[in-house]
Specification:
Strand content: 15-25%
Bound molecules: phosphoenolpyruvate
CATH class: Alpha Beta
Number of domains: 1
CATH superfamily: Aldolase class I
Oligomer: single chain
Strand order of the largest sheet: 1-2-3-4-5-6-7-8
Structural class: alpha/beta
């Protein structure tokens, strides 16, 4: 069964008290979710345990980390393992966000290893891909994203793929206020689904959730989410405000 998901990526925002308040505000406004229409809140690591405790009683509302380390434990000062993430009650982890790829030099190999670590600890992975503006301008975005998907995911078996959500996030649309048109999003999502189909078969392609990310907000969520291959969104800025996040959740529930 293909799920729709709205996931909020808080990035490096909100101190502990502000974060707890935001989760409470989201809980207050969040309408009835369903097994096939879910929400994932991805705050910084420091919030994960308290946020997970707050959402534990709410069906189909989950928490996730924004990153994890690929090693199980050891002398990696400042890092957090997948097992540590799992121990907070979180169920998801974002891997391969463009900000991690760019500012923290995360290579395709590292992202494949992080994906393995997350899956082997029972976490669901929200795997990000997406092209920079120069690639979009050159018209080679399909090949670019194909390479990211192949390198990050195609070593997985079919069973492991069940715990993967793909997030297509064109870098030129992240935090810029510039959104991909629904045609651009649909075209890329259909391309990604066809890659999954060629490698894993029809059922896997039909069932995998592919999110759009990049300046998604209440005013454009409905149009984006109504595209046949767009199964929800990974939301940055608009996930920091409960009313906006609720508007995006409502757009998912209306599909
Ligand atoms: C993101 O960083 O995952 C994102 C989609 O950000 P924004 O919604 O702010 O563009």
């Amino acid at each position: 069964m293909r799920k729709m998901i709205v996931a909020g990526n808080w990035k490096m925002n909100k101190n502990l008290q502000e974060g707890i308040q935001l989760v409470k505000d989201i809980l207050e406004v969040s309408a009835d979710l369903k097994a096939d229409k879910q929400v994932v809140i991805c705050p910084p690591f420091i919030h994960l345990a308290s946020a997970s405790e707050l959402v534990v009683a709410k069906d189909n509302l989950y928490t996730g980390a924004q990153n994890c380390h690929m090693e199980a434990s050891g002398a990696y000062t400042g890092e957090t393992s997948a097992e540590m993430v799992k121990s907070t009650g979180a169920t998801h982890v974002i891997i391969g966000h463009s900000e991690r790829r760019e500012y923290f030099n995360e290579s395709n190999e590292m992202l494949a290893a992080k994906t393995n670590a997350a899956l082997s600890n029972g976490l669901n992975v929200i795997f990000c891909c997406g092209e920079p503006l120069e690639i979009r301008d050159a018209g080679t975005q399909n090949n670019y994203v194909e390479e990211q998907i192949k390198a990050g995911l195609f070593h997985l078996n079919l069973e492991q793929l069940n715990n993967i959500v793909i997030a297509y996030e064109p870098i030129w649309a992240i935090g810029t206020g510039r959104t991909a048109s629904s045609e651009q999003a649909q075209d890329m999502h259909a391309h990604i689904r066809s890659l999954i189909k060629n490698h894993y078969g029809d059922d896997a392609a039909e069932n995998i959730t592919i999110l759009y990310g990049g300046s998604c907000k209440p005013s454009n969520a409905d149009e984006l989410f109504s595209c046949p291959d767009v199964d929800g969104g990974l939301i940055g800025g608009a996930s920091l405000n409960a009313a906006d996040f609720h508007g995006i959740i409502a757009a998912m529930l209306a599909q």
